[in-house]
Every structure is written in C-alpha cells, then in structure tokens.
Amino acid sequence: RIHAVSAEMFPPPVAGNAAQLLLSAHAAEIVVHALFGERGRIAADSATDLQWTRLQSVKQRMDADLAYPWSIDELARNAGLSRRSFNQKFRMAYGQSAIDYLRAQRLDAARAFLIHQRLSVTEAAYRVGYAHPANFATAFRRRFGHSPSRYQ
What we know:
Layout: H1 2-9, H2 17-64, H3 72-79, H4 83-94, H5 98-116, H6 121-127, H7 133-144
C-alpha cells in the first residue's frame, strides 16, 4: 500500500492547494502504515530488552556471590527462561555458557586472592565455591597453565 500511495504522489493528479493537501494526506498515510508495520518489531525489541535486563541481573548475582553453588536451573528460573533458552541466550549475550563464565570468574577471583591476599590454596578454593581443593587445582591448572600453589 505504501508503494501505491507514493506512486500517486508524483506527479500529483491535481494542482495548487489541492495538490498540497493531497500530498500531505498521502504522507500521513505512509507514516501511519510505517508505524503499524513497526508495531511487531517494537514489541519484539521490548521483549529482547527485558531478556537482556534479566540476563544482566543473573550475571550480576553470580558475580556478587561466586561461592554460591549456582545451578543452571536456578539461573534460568531467575532469568524467567527455560533451561535451554537461558543457555542459548547467555551464550549469545556473553560469548560463553553460564557455567563457563562462572568457572572463569571463580578462578580469576581465586587467583587474585592468592596473589593479593596471600590466601592458602584451600582457602582461596573455598572462597570461590570449590568444595574440594583438588578439583579447584585441576580447574586452575586448565585455565592458567600452572598450579595455584605457584603463587605461594
């Protein structure tokens, strides 16, 4: 319909004030059609913004409490998404899965504890949510290429 209306505008079939009035009416009609066409996209953008906000909130909660034993089910529930949808959207938003993100944050924080606060390996592991120092040491070695005891 927009194409048909714009075709009627040039050249206008009437002259003078009538032409000006006709052009204004056609322009208004084009704007209305364009706005109605955007309605669905604007609603989709709002839903995307809400999901983005929820993902950010979940990420901030994880960052604020690295020692908490987060599960994908709990994170997804906090984001108001299914487990599968949460995994997909988190990966799209942050470039890695939520579990990989959480592991990296925990290990980075533990490394900072070892370097700056001179904590023991066991204490650093517990502070970032690892119940077993051996599991922590394995994950640390995978991430950084050396054992956490190197910082002692």
